[in-house]
Structures are given as structure tokens and as C-alpha cells.
Amino acid sequence: MRAMVLEEAGRPLVMKELPDPLPGPGEIRVRVAACGVCRTDLHVVDGDLPQPSLPLIPGHEIVGHVDMIGAGVTGFHMGERVGIPWLGHTCGACDYCRAGRENLCDHPLFTGYTRNGGYATHAVADASYAFPLGALGEDGAIAPLLCAGLIGWRSLVLAGEGKALGIYGFGAAGHIVLQVARAQGRKVFTFSRPGDREAEAFARQLGADWAGGSDEMPPEALDAAIIYAPVGSLVPAALRATRKGGRVVCAGIHMSDIPSFPYRILWEERQLLSVANLTRQDARDFLRVADEAGIRTTTTLYPLARANEALDDLRAGRLQGAAVLIP
Ligand SMILES: [Zn+2]
Ligand SMILES: [Zn+2]
User: Fold this and answer.
1) 100 Cα to the center of ligand 1, angstroms
2) Which of 43, 69, 107, 190 could form a disulfide with 91 if both were Cys (CB 3.0 to 4.6 A apart)?
3) For residue 269, how far is its CA from the centre of ligand 2 (angstroms)?
4) Alpha helices in 61-147 (DSSP H)
5) How far apart are the first and last CA of the chain?
6) Ligand number with the minimum distance to the CA of 100
């Protein structure tokens, strides 16, 4: 198989010809049809996250077709289209797993971080963490649903039922969650980099009730805000825009330091919380919601060999929506 490999954090990925991986017991192999490029991949490649399993094939928004089935696997057939997300394995035995909070498992494996991912022509996955995708949409269009969509969904659930929702950072996750929130009948206010008129126009076109810069206050107080950009200064900005008793949810895996802020913007029972990973139930719930809500993603497709360019474009904020690699 061919794969784009991270040999050392902070270095560009290298195209390699590797032996085809074989699925072990309980695993399946897929021929990759598309793999989304997530901001977390940037944090892995740039060395912001500790101890990736090097050499590593990144990528955790995999759409593929089953082309080999390991011993003991039931419920999949050859050629079936499946999605493989970030949560690649959990232990099933720790307190978190037993309490139904497998996203916080003490001994997890993460696709494209601690096990190989989908920046490749083939990928192997634990069959218990792969999801049938049915006729959900085109391969490249649905790849971003597998992390931007899933983590977006989990953060939206944690944000609560409030009507007025703020979205800070309007990229892959934001443009999906905006559509889900609108389908739920919420008002959505999006905040992008100050002066990024293209992002504002894109948000309005997708149904945002208001779109502005992250240095602006929304026209009404928010019931909840979700922060997708990895920028710590957005935390006090979002708290200031959120009404009494409201919630601010940090959805990223990495963020720059949060500057100190006066206690009064947290007081009055505002809540500040973070989202980590996803559960398999999140995936089942969201894939159904995405289908019902008719989510349409905006993507830029890159051939696999141009993965470094896709990462650079994401890092520089040059993308509208999500980047997707096609092997
Ligand atoms: Zn566990
Ligand atoms: Zn991700």
C-alpha cells in the first residue's frame, strides 16, 4: 500500500510504499476511499500532542470499503462501506468504560495517533469501532462527518438545549454543527477571525442568524457557546457573550493558554467545560441525525500525495469547510 507517514513530529509527511497491512482477530481492513483532514492531525504532526506512535500514518476520518475481514468478526461483508473515526479502541474494563463513558477510557487507542490511520490506500481498524455508512452520501463529502461532525455533535449535546448558540471558529466542525443546530430550530451566531468576510458570508449562506468577528459581541446574549478554534483567548470572549446560567464548551483537543479573566464573567452559574473524544453511541446518534438533517459539507479534495499541502492550507486558515484526501 501507499501511505503518507509521519516519521518525526514537526517534519512533513513522507510518501511510502509499505507492505499491505493484515487485519488481526477482531479487525477489518478497508480500501480507503476518502480520509478527512482534521485539526487534530495538525496537532499530531506539529508535535502538540504527546507520544504519537511513530512512524505513524495520520488520519481519523476514514471512509473505506471492507476488503479483508479478520478472524471472529461478524456483521460486516466484503465491499461494505464503513467509517472509521478517532476512537479506535477502548479497554471495556476501566471505571469509565463500565460507566458508559468510553470516551474517557484509561487505555484507549486513537486512530491516526496511537494506531495507524487513513492517510493511505488501506487501513486496518478494530471492527467494533467501525460504522456502516450505508447510502449517506459521496465518500469525500461524508468523511468530515467522522470527526468534525462527531465531535461537533458531542459538543452540541453538551452545550444543552438553549436556543441561542454561538460557534467560535467556523471551520469543518462549525459548518456542520451550524446546519444541525438550525435543523433543531436554534438561532446560530458564528464568530470567525476578525475581518474574515469570506467566513462570515459562508456562515450566512449556511443559515447563520448572525456572523461576525471573534472580537465582536453578538446582538443578543448566548445560551451556550462552543469553541472550535484552538485559541485560548476565545474562552473569556465566549463567557462575556453568554448569559447567566449558560455554558461554554471547548471542543478541541489542544488550545493555546487561556488568559486570566475576571471571575465575574464566570459567576452567575455559567459553566465552562471541555469535550474529549467520542463514544460509539455518539457516532450512531450523529450518523442518524446527519442523514435526517441532510447535512451538506463543503470540502476541498486533495490527492493523497498532497497531504502536506492540505495540512498547510488548514494551518494557514485558507480552507472553507474541510480538506479531504483521496488516495
Ligand atoms: Zn476503558
Ligand atoms: Zn478529529
Assistant:
1) 9
2) 107
3) 30
4) 95-98, 139-142
5) 10
6) 1
3-class DSSP assignment, residue 20:
coil
108 Cα: distance to centroid of ligand 1 (angstroms): 6
Question: What gap in Å lies between CA 298 and CA 226, rounded to an integer?
Answer: 20
With a CB cutoff of 8 Å and minimum separation 6, the contacts of 301 are 140, 324, 325, 326
Give the H/E segment covering residue 172. helix 172-183
**CB crowding 50-88: b at 16 or more within 10 Å, else e:** eebeeebbbbbbbbbbbbbbbeebeebeeebbbbbbbbb
Torsion angles phi and psi, residue 251, rounded to 5: -100, -5
Report the amino acid identity of residue 262: P
Distance 173 CA to ligand 2 centre (A): 9
Phi-psi region of 2 (alpha: psi -120 to 50; beta: other; left: phi over 0): beta
Q: 324 in helix, strand or coil?
A: strand
Instruction: Please work out, in degrees rounded to the nearest 5, the angle formed at the alpha carbon of residue 52 by the alpha carbons of 319 and 227.
Output: 40
Ligand closest to CA 323: 2
Angle at 253 between CA 263 and CA 45, to 5 degrees: 135
pLDDT per residue as tens, the chain (327 positions): 999 999 999 999 999 999 999 999 999 999 999 999 999 999 999 999 999 999 999 999 999 999 999 999 999 999 999 999 999 999 999 999 999 999 999 999 999 999 999 999 999 999 999 999 998 999 999 999 999 999 999 999 999 999 999 999 999 999 999 999 999 999 999 999 999 999 999 999 999 999 999 999 999 999 999 999 999 999 999 999 999 999 999 999 999 999 999 999 999 999 999 999 999 999 999 999 999 989 999 999 999 999 999 999 999 989 888 999 999
Crossing angle of helices 197-205 and 172-183, in 10° steps, is 30
Phi-psi region of 201 (alpha: psi -120 to 50; beta: other; left: phi over 0): alpha
**DSSP labels for 253-275?**
S--PPPPP--GGGTTTT-EEEE-
Q: pTM here? A: 0.94
